[in-house]
Amino acid sequence: MMRHEFKKYDKYKDSGVEWIGKVPFNWISGRIKDFADINVSTRIPTNLTNDDLVEFVPMTNVNNNIGRIEKFNFVPLKAVSSGYTKFKNRDVIFAKITPCMENGNCVIVNGLSHDIGFGSTEFMVFRSFRKLTEEYLHYFLHNDLFRQNAEPFMKGTAGQKRISSQYMTTHYLALPPISEQKTITNYLDTKTTQIDKKIYLLTKKVDQYSELKQSLINETVTHGLDKTVAMKDSGVEWIGKIPEHWEKKRVKDLFVESKIKSVTGQETLLSVSEYSGVTQKKDNVGNDELLTNAITLVGYKICKAGELIINIMLAWKRGLGVSSFDGIVSPSYAVYSPNKSICSAYFHYLFRSNRAIVEFKRNSTGIIESRLRLYSDNFYSIDVVIPEYKEQKAIANYLDTKTAQIDRIVETINTEIEKLKELRKTLINDVVTGKIKVITEGE
Fold first, then answer.
1. Which segment of the chain is annotated as a signal peptide (predicted)?
2. Are 258 and 335 in contact (CB under 8 A)?
3. Does residue 44 sit in the same domain as residue 83?
4. 163 and 190: one domain?
5. Which end of the chain has less Cβ packing within 10 Å, N or C?
6. Tell me, what CATH number does 44's domain have?
7. DSSP readout, 316-329?
8. 248 φ, ψ to 5°?
9. Which domain holds residue 402?
10. If you write DSSP's letter for every residue of 245-291 in order, what string do you get?
């Protein structure tokens, strides 16, 4: 196996490009169009008929990890022969729209059965022709400095900004000799593959812990903490067997909708997440982001700690939770006050369990999934099961402790994943900008 090591270049020079700065002395600078064609025309092979299947690449099929098309979709040629981006094997396709551009949706195309493929019109196509390898261009387009320099020139509305072909053709880059490009890309191929493998394995661990957490919640909120207690049929299809001393109730017997509205709009703004339940909105936005686009928060719904908040459009996707805060929520959310006989923390876990989410979806109204709504009448009609108050509280306390332990483990793993992603970025940035030199063993 070839081994690589780093050292500084012996001599640097000014690249003449402000954002690039100094580059190794033997590197050359130029515009992308000096080294590659962009959006070059690609002819459809004459031996293909309209009914022949060809590869099609939606934006979502380009993994934002380094250089990978997750899969090809196969469609009849007549469906994509006009109005779509065309490319060949070895072309570099690059997403020009946010957020895909920032995420690095860029790949070298390989494996096209007819040497022609089709994709979203949001792809740009680059074809190297001199002094630039496809592999090096591919890594350059993943370079953070390039993306940060390009972002101010993107045009369009927030979330739908695009970088223009004109900007890309005239954008400058610094290039090492071809032999050095190959050394660099071989090194980056090896290192990014190793890093990606570690990220994949750690991500699988996160998934496993997430499944463990949900399994623990599902089991505990329906079977309780005492595994020796006698069980009975609950009479509720979505729950199944329960401890024989538990009761069946309808939601309407336990919660009442609160429709109190804010007069001042000055209360703490809350949000509902499928991942974390109810949180304070200020904890989920960056320093340069607005809490809300609303002109005023007057008329938002008042919520008290212990009340249940449901985003009626996302109940089927776990968009609900019991609040730990006093505050206000969107007028389109539903707020429910629990009666004094129940521990709302228990219902936070029950209503966010996998079984409950399936039941919420079944009781939601709408033609397509993205338009489902869980209105109060349908929510009230759902049957649930509950132990006595003391046991509800014990279950909630137990799950607080256990889920917090799992969350801490997941947070540690996610921190390691972010470190690996940052390492990958740093390696690419430093090598393709000439900050460090990659040499093979024996040089």
1. none
2. yes
3. yes
4. no
5. N
6. 3.90.220.20
7. GGT-EEE-SS-EEE
8. -100, 135
9. 1-8+178-224+389-443
10. T-EEEEGGGTEEEE--B-SSS-SPBEEEETTTEEEEGGGGS-TTS-S
Is the domain of 167 the same as that of 83? Answer: yes
Beta pairing partners, 278? 272
- pLDDT tens for each residue of 356-404: 999 999 999 988 887 899 999 999 999 999 999 999 999 999 999 999 9
Residue 17 in any domain: the answer is no
Nearest one of 33, 31, 27, 32 to 12, comparing CA atoms: 27
Amino acid letter for position 400: D
Note whether 220 and 398 are within 8 A (CB): yes
**Do 381 and 406 fall into the same domain?**
no
Q: What is the CATH number of the domain that holds 202?
A: 1.10.287
Find all residues with CB under 8 Å of 16, minimum gap 6, and list them.
29
**Rounded to whole angstroms, how far apart are CA atoms 72 and 51?**
17
User: pTM of this prediction?
Assistant: 0.81
Backbone angles phi, psi at 336, to 5 degrees: -125, 130
Classify strands 320-322 and 327-329 as parallel, antiparallel or unpaired: unpaired
- Residue 193 CA to residue 219 CA, distance in Å, equals 39
Q: Based on the domain organization, do 266 and 403 belong to the same domain?
A: no
Residues 167, 34 share a domain: yes
- Looking at the structure of the chain, the number of domains it has is 3
pLDDT in tens, 213-269: 999 999 999 999 999 999 999 999 999 999 999 999 999 999 999 999 999 999 999
Parallel/antiparallel/unpaired status of strands 277-280 and 270-273:
antiparallel
